Amino acid sequence: MARVYLGLGSNIDAERHLRMGIEQLRQRFGELELSTVYRNRSVGFDGDDFLNMVVGFESEASPAAIQAEIERIHGLAGRQRGEARYASRTLDIDLLLYDDLVTEVPGLRLPRPDVLEYGFVLRPLTELAPELAHPVTGRTMLEHWQAFDADSESLTAVDLDL
In terms of Cα–Cα distance, which of 101, 9, 8, 117 is closest to 63? Predict the structure, then answer.
């Protein structure tokens, strides 16, 4: 069994789309560990605020199978591939970590660079797995969060029943 972490975000009818994404992930992968949901400004474009979170779960599915499931859920949320990299999203699910796998193949890079680049990914991941070592740096998520410039992003916890 692999320990898997996914990042979820939305800024279009965000509460509804996050709930749908969580429901679909539970149906496919079972019990999920959920972080706090955080509101943050859009990054790279002018748009509505995003709601972001991280989920963790155990799975025997391969990274490719998980990625295929993510794409199926994106389809259910009405997400169209080919959208601009920085744009509003009904639902954005990213495979962040798959155990300590380090790989880069077309369409999949693990660990996902977002883990260390964005507070809206690192903070909720740190909540779920503070002692987890990053597979490339060897430092824990907590160590990375403590070194992160938290003032660079405004993150506000949101009470959302998922």
Answer: 101
Which domains occur in the chain, in start order?
Answer: 2-158 (3.30.70.560)
What is the three-class DSSP state of 75? Answer: helix
Helix or strand or coil: residue 115? helix
Nearest to 125 by CA among 147, 97, 162: 97
Tokens 């969580």 sit at which residue?
22
Classify residue 8 as exposed, middle or buried by CB count within 10 Å of its CB (0-12, 13-18, 19+). Answer: buried
The length of the chain, given as a count of residues: 162
Euclidean distance between CA atoms 160 and 118, whole angstroms: 21
Contact (CB, 8 A) for 52 and 40: yes
Structure token pair of residue 142: 């907590």
pLDDT digits (tens, 9 = 90+) for 56-109: 999 999 999 999 999 999 999 987 666 666 678 899 999 999 999 999 988 899
